[in-house]
Amino acid sequence: MSVKRYSNIIGFDDAPFSRNHHGKVKVIGTVYAGLRFDGVIIGEVTKDSSDASQNLIELIAGSKFAKHVQLLMFQGITLAGFNVINVFHIHKELRLPVLIVARNMPDRESIKKALLTRIIDGDKKWEIIEKLG
């Protein structure tokens, strides 16, 4: 079995924010070509909103790295609280593979409960998570 190697990767995560924070949260993408650090992309998404996917698409497509990037990586499926990343939409728009990495197995029942009881459009966000399997 052969494994595809990706040489131009952007890995994203959100910047720290306080629990009672409202509004925009910084999102940072580190760009690597192999083991070489090539640069940083900085954008914003709204805490607990639904703008992460579109904001990331615009951020990546408008960057100087757009022509060379081969893979997008995210630590987890959410940014800025419960701003769920729609990997299917990002993949379709940018035609790039998307890899979600999690340090630990998420507590799906707690996530589902929080989304469906406390978050606007939580049902739509849960559908995206469910679709990922």
* Structural class designation: alpha/beta
Unreliable residue runs: none
CA radius of gyration is: 15 Å
Taking all residues together, what is the mean pLDDT? 94
Give structural notes.
The chain is an alpha/beta fold and 133 residues long. It has one domain (8-105): archaeoglobus fulgidus dsm 4304 superfamily (archaeoglobus fulgidus dsm 4304 fold). Helix content is 30%, strand content 31%. The chain has 4 helices and 7 strands. It has helices at 52-61, 87-94, 108-118, 122-132; strands at 8-14, 24-33, 36-46, 71-75, 78-79, 83-84, 98-101. The strands form 2 sheets. A 5-stranded mixed β-sheet has the order 3-2-1-4-7, covered by helices on one side. Strand 2 (24-33) and strand 3 (36-46) form a beta hairpin. The protein is globular, with a radius of gyration of 15 Å. The model has no long low-confidence stretch (mean pLDDT 94).
Secondary-structure topology with pairs:
Elements lengths: L7 E7 L9 E10 L2 E11 L5 H10 L9 E5 L2 E2 L3 E2 L2 H8 L3 E4 L6 H11 L3 H11 L1
Helix pairs in contact: 1-2, 3-4
